[in-house]
Automatic annotation (TrEMBL):
It holds the Pfam family Phage_base_V. Residues 155-195 are annotated as: Disordered. InterPro entries: Gp5/Vgr_OB, GpV/Gp45, Vgr_OB-fold_dom_sf. Residues 35-93 form the Gp5/Type VI secretion system Vgr protein OB-fold domain. This is Phage baseplate assembly protein V. Signal peptide: none annotated. It comes from the Bacteria. It comes from Halomonas saccharevitans.
Amino acid sequence: MSQHPLQSAAELLRLIHNLIRLGTIAEVDHGVVGERPPRVRVKSGELLTAWRPWIECRAGTTRDWNPPTVGEQVVMFSPGGDPAGAVVLVGLFSDAYPAPADLPTLCRRLFPDGGLFEYDHQASVLRIKLPGRIEIEAPGGTAWTGDIDHQGDMARAGSYAQDGGTLTHNDVNVGHDHPHTGVVPGSGQSGGPVQ
């Protein structure tokens, strides 16, 4: 028995309407690595989807992890118009979550604890602002080119070697060529470095 033409048209319109829909994240399941993939449920009008995957920037041998948050605005793409097979594209700004900058010269990522990564390509400056600490693990070492301006205490373990330049403490030369006062031949000790 064939469908009534109006029923077929209504079904076709429903499928077309569901191909691409706007919505917001209603729930997030971060998954369990190796057991259950991460997924979200999306609220779009009266529709609350089943658990569906979201689209990350990379998900191959190079993989990203930046899960969406509840209330984030998204786009759902439903192949064939069936939301049960939808994939979710995150990253639409909204009144609830506005853009973290309005300058064309900035590339910025803002985190919920106030942490910030920012590259200003007009000033050629990379800025990192964190409420906590930075941890770097690099068994091969780190290489710096350029001056370092450090404020705060420093604790270190291991040897220290300096090649060239000067070494001062409170504007007093304490490098390899610093002179001393009160030098006496023999086994006596010299005075402190010359001011």
